[in-house]
Amino acid sequence: MTPQKFLIFRPDHLGDMLLTTPAIYALRKTYPEAHISVLSGSWAAPILKGNPDLNDILLCNLPWLDRGGKPSWRPLPRMIGQIRAQNFDHIFNFRIAAKAAAFSRLLGGQIRWGFDVNKSSWAWNKTVPFDPARHVVDNYMALVKAAGVDTASVRFRIFPETEALSPVDQLLNDLPPAVVLGVTSGRPDKAWIASRWACLADHIAEQGFQILLNGGPSESAEIEAVKTLMTHKAISLVGKFSLLQFAGLLKKCRAMITIDSFPMHMAAAVDIPTIAIMGANSSQMWGPYPGAYPRIIVEPPEEIPRDDKAMATIELNRVVEAFDSLNLGV
Fold this sequence. Notes:
The structure is a single chain. The chain has 330 residues and is an alpha/beta fold. It has helices at 14-30, 76-84, 98-105, 136-145, 166-172, 194-205, 220-229, 243-251, 262-269, 283-286, 316-325, and strands at residues 5-10, 35-40, 56-59, 90-93, 111-115, 126-128, 178-182, 210-214, 234-236, 255-259, 274-277, 295-298. The chain has a 6-stranded parallel sheet, with helices on both faces. The protein is globular and about 60 Å long. The mean pLDDT is 93.
């Protein structure tokens, strides 16, 4: 009997890909002989390095999701033809956006799975409800469960050991136990105030921890703004590590405090104590997924509108109290 062929449609952002790995793992455990492919943007594919749940990764940079370079529509017709030729038995689309629905509808597939939302349900012949009151990971698991997948356990899959971790060890050698602060985000409505980050960092440093400030390659100015306001020494991680090396570093740190961002999900995935400062997005849907270690969400009171001013309402003392409640010790 020919093994079934599954395509995971996930051509979007880093966090989205990471949050889908439990569903992919569950699919592999239920169908060990299946051929499982993932359609990914080139920017998110490194998250999948070394993942044994996959047979292959199909790279496809959709222009409306491409945040770098010069997005082009020209490769898409050829990509559509190549995917259609593979005759997938099942295509799972975890996005609810109309453009993604239109593109994945062109990819063929005998059974197309997606969420029952008005703007995209027309593209699927099998749907499940999308519940905004539960975490996106649980919605993703519900989608594959409808295809007969055993979703009893949620297991993130990321393999930092597939890359050299000696640069991580070299950085951490002879340093006190480290706490990572994720102070940057690609969206201004998720940003917290630099002076509050600096005061928080100094409070943690005074307890004997080394402060590591994380940010993307284009975010060094935001990191320096926090460092300049601090009285203690902090180390910037900008440009130092690959995605999987950063995962390996997090596993060696005592905790992460971060705004709503990909590193927040990475910290939860490697199961270290995580404090998330969240304003604009729903913490029910997008907060750090629960794990063995504490996950604390600091967010505005319910009466505060979740807009671009929400983060400014989160006072320093609330995040300090959250960190102190971890009782990490040095």
